[in-house]
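User: I'm curious whether this sequence folds into something compact or stays loose and floppy. Could you predict its structure so I can see for myself?
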Amino acid sequence: MLHNLRVGQFLLLEESNSIVGCVYLEKKSDRMYLGLLSIDPKQQGRGLGRKLMTTAEEFATNAGCISMDLRTISPREDIQPFYARLGYSVTGMSPIPQEIPMVVPAHFVHMSKSLLKAQGAQ
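Assistant: Here's the prediction. I'll summarize afterward.
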């Protein structure tokens, strides 16, 4: 499934009047899709990705969502442990549409996290 970036919104993380990170969020019924998490490479390793994910989850919870869904591509095995440490679990896999050119064979890895605990703790 391709996402229309005009439907959702981006959360920006700024420091000293510069954007150091962003993430795309799109509400789908009672679930929030998260994509395009990006941190300035010079700023990585400072916990900014975790901070942005926490903010995105709070945004989703405040929007009434019960889960956060995301997907990665299989060659990016390095980022799946990051999401797993934040409580995300692999929920499935799907093919990448043929119209998306890939340099190496790949598929989508879908991950999800329940936000219900976060809502109950408030």
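Summary: The mean pLDDT is 92. The radius of gyration is 15 Å.
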